[in-house]
Structure formats: C-alpha cells, structure tokens
Amino acid sequence: MSVSDERVRVRVLLLVGDEAEIVADVRPEERAEPQRYPVEEIAEAAGVPRGELPGVVLTAVVGAGDRLHGWQRV
Known about the structure:
By secondary structure, the protein is mostly beta strands. It has one helix at residues 39-46; strands at residues 6-16, 19-24, 35-38, 57-62, 68-73. The two termini are 18 Å apart.
C-alpha cells in the first residue's frame, strides 16, 4: 500500500451469482450505486465464507480507477 492509498469502509449488500454488490458503509440516502466485485476475491482476502458475505462490513483500499482491493473484515 502506498502513501496515497486510501482505505474506506464498505458493506456487502448482496450476492448476484459470482459477484458481490458493494456499497459505502454510510446511510442509504448517502450511498452511490452499488459496485460489483468477484465474490471469491473478497471472500478469500477477508477470510469470510461466501454465504456469510451479505451484510458484512469490510475495509478496502481505493486503487487505480477507484477500484477497491485489499479487502479486510472490520
């Protein structure tokens, strides 16, 4: 992680097939549209079983193109 990387708090909203819908962990009226990320990437990095991901709060690093990575369970 470089000095310019920012870690943000997010929530797994739901799973859609092999993708997880991720939203900022803020009040619903403040959220942008959900972004989708591979379920396996998140589950493996955060150490959370696939079936337990919906509703889980995580942190992630904002990378190039505002894509998230470096998932960690809060």
